[in-house]
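Morning!

As promised:
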Amino acid sequence: MKLNLLFFGILTDATGKAKQEFESDATDVDSLNKQLQIIYPELIKHTYKIGVNSEIVSRGKKLYDGDEVSFLPPFAGG
Amino acid sequence: MKLNLLFFGILTDATGKAKQEFESDATDVDSLNKQLQIIYPELIKHTYKIGVNSEIVSRGKKLYDGDEVSFLPPFAGG
Amino acid sequence: MTEMKFHFCHRLPAGKHSMMEEKKKKHNVLVEGRVTSTFIADAISKHSSKTEIGAHAIFLGQVRRDAQKDSFVKNIEYSAHPEMAEKAFEKIREKAFKKFDMICLHIHHSIGMVDAGEVSLFVFVSCKHRAQTFGALKWLVDEIKKTVPIWKKENYENGSYKWLDGDQPPM
Amino acid sequence: MTEMKFHFCHRLPAGKHSMMEEKKKKHNVLVEGRVTSTFIADAISKHSSKTEIGAHAIFLGQVRRDAQKDSFVKNIEYSAHPEMAEKAFEKIREKAFKKFDMICLHIHHSIGMVDAGEVSLFVFVSCKHRAQTFGALKWLVDEIKKTVPIWKKENYENGSYKWLDGDQPPM
């Protein structure tokens, strides 16, 4: 299935991009995350939360075709 | 001796004036205050501090010719 | 009534709008570039018609020209997940109106480049009495820093940059 | 250096002024009539050159149109012992700079008539980091209310008036 990945903050440096269309057989957030950590090993060095369709989710969250998946390092607004 | 009296806030209503040149034989703040409470009996109803030459003083403060004496009800700025 | 208060601050419903429509209005916290002092002045002067207000408290975050090795901060580049950020701000509004006895609340946060010396965060709390404003202001600024998906990249005068750390605990 | 900071905020000494002369400069807190939003905006924008500042906190006291029997507040008339008031504000400044890690502090308080909806008190605190601003702002406003010889007379729309109570303990 096709996922729309969004990387934010320092993770844009870790992956070299801010967004990516990603074809994946991962059925949940945790397995997607493991796939991405292989492609982008720099990710492992960072702390981040994961959002699906604009909601922060736990790592067991199921994924569906067309989902937007956001990789969110610690917030630093203000 | 001659004193320059200043009344503030609600004390301008109690005395009917904001300032007054006052000839007095009072040698300290306490005796001046007692004289004024006879002239302006409304003063007795109010709480106030007394300032001499722009400094708040205790009631035993000695008075000298030409002193400015201020009658200061509770402050209400802001 | 508490609900109405903040949704209707400067947004009095026209005759044809229902309350439900009014409630759905977005607050659009994020603004492109710096928050100008005329924008702030305008926000303040609009409140002179809200004569039940006795006290306003305002927080402004300003970009510091901090030293960094051989250089200085030139600007901060703010980025966000816009939908998530606006949702997070909306949640902060709702919590704030439950926690504090406020009449109005306005928040604006920059996105994009903001130069050293310029303002990137504007939090504006209005209450009947002063007592509630101080706690509300502090709570709001802390909550914004903790819960809104915004990131900042410090660009230095020598061309280098650094992503600034947030204080979000690990998931 | 701590001493210099606030005396020199927007008051950089000309070559011929000694530090002693500079220190004696009055801050002139009292202003005739309301504090305008353009005055506030101007104060904010002047600080964009102070690039060591990271956080400003501002308090604005606004005159409420409170109901009073059959009428409403039309305006508040502020009066003061000007010399004692300016001295009291100067003492507050000195205490505040000792208590809090501030870079700049500006206070303006109205004298004379201020209409309902208008601003009569403007307290403007600037620090390196946000943490100090909130406590400083609250302390300053409380201290101003307690220690500055200012009085207020509420004038109502029907022509009557009332002197407002302060919260000074009896001597």
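The CA atoms of residues 92 and 143 of chain C lie 7 Å apart.

Hope this helps with the figure draft.
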